[in-house]
Each structure stands twice: as C-alpha cells, then as structure tokens.
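Input record (one chain):
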Amino acid sequence: MVVTAGETRLRRYARSDRVLTVPNVLSVLRLAGVPLFLWLLLGPRLDALAIVVLAVAAITDWLDGKLARWLNQASRLGAMLDPLADRCYILATCVAFVIRGILPWWFVAAILARDVVVVGCIAVLRRAGYGPPEVTYIGKAATFCLLYALPLLLLAQGGSTAAMIAAPIGYGCAFWGAGVHLWSGALYVTQTAAAVRRRVRDGNA
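The corresponding structure, as predicted from the sequence alone:
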C-alpha cells in the first residue's frame, strides 16, 4: 500500500498486546490528571496550577512516545491511550471554556463531532480486520495547536498587557487547530472508506 503525505497508514495489528509498560503507565497517569485539570478550571479557578498540570501532561505525552520507541514497548493499548489522553484534555478544557464564556459552544460541538466520527471509523476498521489508524502529522499539528492555545486563552483572561498579546495568538491557534483537526478527521474517513473497499474487493477476488 502506497502512503502519501498526510494520509493515515492502515496496518493490520502489528503492535504487541502488552499492557504493563512504561509508556502505558505514563499515559494512564496523564489520563488521571484530567479530572484534576478540569476541577482546577471550574472549581477554584486556579488557572496557573491548571497550566502546570497541562504542561506536565504535555511532557509525558512527548516522553511516552519516545520511550515506546527506545524501549521497544509499542503496544495496541498504548496506541489507543496516547491520543485518548490528548482528546480528553482538549475536550475537558473546551467544555470548561464554554462554561466560563471563553469559547463558543459550537467550537466544542465541532471537535466532539469529529472525534465521534473517528471512533466510528476505528470500529469499522476493526470489523475489516485493521488496527486503529496511525496518528498523522496533520493530526499531531492540530493537537499541538489546540494544546498550545489553551494556556494562552487562560492568560488572555484579564486586562493586562500580557492578556492583550495572548488573546489574538490564543484564539488564532484555537481556531486554526480546530480547522486542521476537522481536516484530519476527514482524512480518517477517506482512509477508512478506502480500506473497506479494498477489503470487499479482496473478499470478492
């Protein structure tokens, strides 16, 4: 199968079934930080501490991918946990920002709809005998933009000079990231449709 830039490479299950690995432990810890992160935003509104939690999550996100390659501990569970943790942080923050009036409700609705469609694509791929689609550079870019926008949007709340500078950058990153996020979702749909057609063609051969 030839894969062009920006496409999702679909492979049959090639990762191991290991569960207890260092990268997986980091991913679980990152997921465990989501409720704390959301509480800091909506409860006491300790935005500075919320940014610290987000920074730690970003570091572990980078680290678990590196360790999976260095230690040869790539697993199917890790392939699901890693993007799941990113999605949880993004969605938790977007929901909190809607409640606090920082982002419009339709922004969160668009991101959530895209993720629901991707989950549906994964289910279709499993039925066709394929593993989850690999994360693309486009998907990584979207996640980077959205995660980069979140602390800037928090910093933008207020009347300081720093807030005035952070606001246009933060909102620009947020809406650009959302657009690329939707684009990557469309690529997943395209790749899923191609995989299903290929499966049907092979089955009829």
